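Convert to structure. Protein one:
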Amino acid sequence: MVHIIGTSHETLPIEIQKKKDTLVNLLIAAYFGEIETAINYQAIVRNLDGHSGLMLRQFLEPEIEEEFGHAKQIAKRISILGFNVPSSAVFRDSEVSPAQKRLQTVAGSKDFHAIISAIKAAEREAMNLYVSIISLCEEFDLSTADVVTHILRDEEEHFLIMDRLSTSLR
């Protein structure tokens, strides 16, 4: 295993340089995804009403801070890996994922089933991204794999809670 921390990018084997670049691009996508999820959850929480809205709001309000916390952890890894954490200008120019588009669409909705379905899609998308990151970095960056594994656990828990909530609202 090549230890990539403390080793200049240029002195790494080309194959590891490419994997590290891919890893950082995936981390940046995850970073933006966490921030965008928090923003969309905030919009959903502020637009909900009624008893079902209260249940969803009680779940989502703490999730907003947790999603921002995930973004902070990912930003720290990007920095530790020797790359700049992108600014909001890059965020605005980045492509919005399909699941995030669904969250944006339901942010003003009162349709709880559509909201929960969109949240589950965003969580599933995040889980898939984190599994890809873990698979990529297991052979050369166990620290990033560890950080992302913890975030993955949180996303799995969020998904299961939303799945139970959608079942209880049927």
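Protein two, convert as well:
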Amino acid sequence: MCRFISFWHNPNTGDIKVSDLTSHSETAEALGLADKVWREGHYLPNGTVECRVLDTDRKTSKECEDRLLSKWPTFIEFWEMCIEKGGEVNRTIDLRDCPGLRVLPENLKVNGSLYLSGCPGLRALPENLTVKGTLYLNDCPALKSLPENLKAGKTLYLRNCPALKSLPENLKVGAFLDLRGCMALKSLPENLKVGRHLILPNHLKETSSP
């Protein structure tokens, strides 16, 4: 269920306006844009760009899409540009089941939740990743480690991440930490703090039992 970045573009100048990294986040009026020159567009995680235009515009949709792709040839590069312009992401990001997703922008801060479950190409997360809501990383078979400064305000789901070998030494999770199916995980860090409930994989349940 890969979501997309919704943006506004000016077919004549190539200018881009993005208010948030969510679909249909804001209207042109809310961004203070003139409806007569700004059109909607979408950038999908698979690299597809869709630019809407009117018959009266100087550029066709294909020309607008090619122009945008020449500046930001990948979804991640476009995403990084949006974050640099807008700073924090104030809503939930849903990138579940995106086979082409391999990296995320550095210093990403999400004030909602972040869905990354079912991303087989995701091997690592950016340093200083902060998620105030819940971080979903279930079924990410290539994920081998987590950044030392990772912050998850609510729940951290890591179910069925068979390549994950260790957790950050000072990991703090606000509510639940789900590690079921993390068969390569050999031990838990001494300074691990979980606010409510820790769910262990079977092999660690056995070693922690009296």
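The radius of gyration is 20 Å. DSSP finds three helices and 15 strands in the chain.
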